[in-house]
Amino acid sequence: MNNPKESPSLHTPCSDPRSAGTVALRWQGARLELLDQRLLPAQEHWITLETAAGVAQSIHDMVVRGAPAIGISAAYGVALAARKAEGDDWQAEVKMAIRELAASRPTAVNLFWALQRMERVLEGCVALDEARQRLEGEAVAIHEEDLAANLAMADHALEAMGLSSGNSSPVSVLTHCNTGALATGGYGTALGVIRRLHEKQLLKQVYADETRPWLQGSRLTAWELVRDGIPVTLNADGAAAAILATGEVRWIIVGADRITANGDVANKIGTYSLAVLARHHKVGFMVVAPSSTVDMALKSGAEIPIEERDGKEVREIRGIALAPEGVPVFNPVFDVTPANLIDLIVTEKGVVQNPGTSGMHGLFG
Ligand SMILES: CSC[C@@H](O)[C@@H](O)C(=O)COP(=O)(O)O
């Protein structure tokens, strides 16, 4: 395991608090550019999209992924649909694009939240020119609000961890999947909290689960953290228990794809087992997500649609077999952590401690 004392330069605060070096998506007015996350860290390749169908396919194929980044990309997809629409049926055309985008992935509610916002704007427009302008404005607003939410959540989280006073000792944390600039409008949710800890010299070490099978932890989180000089040690998912058993880690910090009215949290597969481990080892378990991830229409996590992806993701890697050909695979890519295993849900609107129905209703109505 790395000893952070041996690498003091890793504690230099990031010069730009939004980690301007790492972005997942760029809006260029007439087109959306996405950094192809399937190819990281080997290649930094940008894909240019000019249609909503292209954006929907890119979300489905995980060129772009992470709940907030999916929502932002979909919003830009609607803006692209309005640019392409023409004739008397322009509004129906844009609505069709919204339906196509909504079918791209099922679990992250940010996708449906962003599309609902775009649809409301669309329905308030009478002319196509007006719709083009207002839909682009709304997508940019969704993007900018997400970055602002991430910065606010980092403040709330440090306060809730009791680390905002200035005389605290650095802590080690463990995270799962990728919740950084690549998964959001910038900075990150759980990884935003980790960035803020680092900026304030309150971070000793980040343990990053590699996150089988898609390897968001090793391919994306480790890449982001190494780029920004944040001390990270990569571990196989199965090593998390052994790491917690050392007593070094004080918090497990993760993101979310959907949080229901009782405080249950859907997040990347493997999150639930981390929450069980955290409780056993008396380690804090924190979920960091913008309010666009909260779905008060669902009573509990049992109602969340959980995406299952192709068994190939488990059976092989870049075409190399990891398992006998054709072996049946169970590949749910999210799981649900029950609220009673969560200590803190941090959003830009505030923090819910020991989440349950009343705490969630107190903050989200
Ligand atoms: C800020 S990202 C939060 C979640 O979306 C993240 O933890 C996650 O589960 C991402 O899953 P992915 O399948 O990579 O889209």
Structure description:
- By secondary structure, this protein is an alpha/beta fold.
- The protein folds into two domains: 20-147, translation initiation factor eif-2b, domain 1 (Four Helix Bundle (Hemerythrin (Met), subunit A), Up-down Bundle); 153-364, Rossmann fold (3-Layer(aba) Sandwich), CATH 3.40.50.
- Helices cover 38% and strands 17% of the residues.
- It has eleven helices and 16 strands.
- The protein has helices at 52-61, 67-84, 90-102, 109-123, 128-160, 190-199, 216-227, 240-245, 271-281, 312-315, 357-364, and strands at residues 25-27, 32-35, 46-49, 171-175, 203-209, 232-235, 249-254, 258-260, 265-268, 284-288, 294-295, 316-317, 320-321, 334-337, 344-347, 350-353.
- The strands form four sheets. Strands 6-5-4-7-10-15-16 form a seven-stranded mixed beta sheet, sandwiched between helices. Strands 11-8-9-14 form a four-stranded mixed beta sheet, with helices on one face.
- Helix 1 (52-61) runs antiparallel to helix 2, helix 2 (67-84) packs parallel to helix 4 and helix 4 (109-123) packs antiparallel against helix 5.
- The longest helix has 33 residues, at 128-160.
- Residues 1-20 have low confidence and may be disordered.
- 5-S-methyl-1-O-phosphono-5-thio-D-ribulose (MRU) is lined by residues 65-68, 108, 177, 179, 183-184, 189, 216, 255-257, 267-268, 333.
